[in-house]
C-alpha cells in the first residue's frame, strides 16, 4: 500500500515526509495502523549519524502503538483489531537469549540496523522511486502504517490510551528497567540519575518505586530538574561536578550504590565523573548513547579495581518486552507509574522537526506524534 513516512536521506538534514510503499505482511508479520509514536533521542542519533543504519533512506521511529490491520500466514498471537505496542527490541521467544530470560538480547537484535525484515531478509518498504527503505530497529513508527514481524509487537489492553502505550516501546521499559533490572536498585540505596529526559524520568520512577532512599537527579536544564523533583527526586543538580559534593555530604561519603546514565549524548570523557559518584561496590548503568564509532573512555582503572565498581551497559533496560510492557502498563492503570505527565507535547507527523527541536531545546520530557484521519 501507498502511505508516507519521515525519512532521512543523509546525515544532519531535517526529516522529510515522503511517499512510501509498504509491502503486504508475509509469514509471521502483521500490518499495523499506527496511532501514536514517541520521539526518543535515539532517532536523533540516526540523523547525526551517531547510530548508523546500513543504508539510506532511513525511516525513523522505534517507539509506538497502534491497531492490527492485517495478519500474515502463521500468525497466531494477534488478530485484526488487537491493540499493540511496537517494541524496538524484538523477542522471538526461541533463541538462547530469549530462553534464558534475556529477551532484550534476542538474536533478532543483530538485524536492528540492517533495514531488512527478519522474516525473509528482504526489504518491506520502498520509496515511490523503488529504492529500499531502512526502517529504524525493524519498525519505522514515523509512518501511519507499518508491517512488522510478530516478534516486534506486544498485545495490550484496549482501554489504554495509545500515546501512553507508545512510550512503552522504548523509553519507559528502558528507563524503568535501567534502574530496576540492570541497576537492581534496592530499598534504602542512594541513586543518581544523570540526564532526566524521557528515559531518565522513567529511570527516576523505577528508582523511587524500588524504594531508593535519596534519588539525585542531574540535568543542565532547569525545567527538567523541576520536573524531576515532581517525579520523586530528592535533590536536583545542574551537573555531576555540582552534585558530587552534595551527594558526598548527604551520603556521608558513601556516594550512590547505583548511578543510571541517561544523558542524550554520551561521551567517553565523562565516564570517570559518573564512576566518581558511584559508591564502592556500586554500579554505574550506562543506558545513554553517543557516537557508535567513539571508543575512547576516560576511566581510572585503579579506582575501578580497588573500589570494586561495576560499569554496566544496558539495552532496553534489561527488560523483557512481552513481559514488562504489559506489566508497566498495568502499573500505569492503577496509578503506580506516571506516564501521562511524561508526555509534554503532541505533534502531527509533519511537525516532526519541530518536535525534535523541542527535545533538543529541553522543552519536552517526551514528545509524541499522533496520527489522525488525515494520515491514514
Ligand atoms: N540503551 C538503550 O536501550 C536506549 C534506549 C533508548 C534511548 N537510549 C539513549 O538514552 C539517551 C536518552 O534518551 P532520551 O530519549 O531520554 O533523551 P532526552 O533528550 O529526552 O533526554 C536526555 C537528557 O539528558 C540531559 N543532558 C544532556 N547532557 C547532559 C549532561 N552532560 N549531564 C546530565 N544531563 C544531560 C538533557 O538535558 C536531557 O534532559 C539517548 O542517548 C538515547 O539514544 C538508549
Ligand atoms: Zn528509544
Ligand atoms: Zn529471541
TrEMBL record:
UniProt EC number: 1.1.1.1
SUPFAM superfamilies cross-referenced by the UniProt entry: GroES-like, NAD(P)-binding Rossmann-fold domains
InterPro entries membership: ADH-like_C, ADH-like_N, ADH_Zn_actinomycetes, ADH_Zn_CS, GroES-like_sf, NAD(P)-bd_dom_sf
EC top class named in words: oxidoreductase
Sequence ranges assigned to domain Alcohol dehydrogenase-like N-terminal in this UniProt record: 27-157
GO terms (BP aspect): formaldehyde catabolic process
Cofactors: Zn(2+)
Database matches in Pfam families: ADH_N (PF08240), ADH_zinc_N (PF00107)
Reactions catalysed according to its record: a secondary alcohol + NAD(+) = a ketone + NADH + H(+); a primary alcohol + NAD(+) = an aldehyde + NADH + H(+)
The keyword Zinc is assigned to this record: yes
Similarity field: Belongs to the zinc-containing alcohol dehydrogenase family.
Protein known as: alcohol dehydrogenase
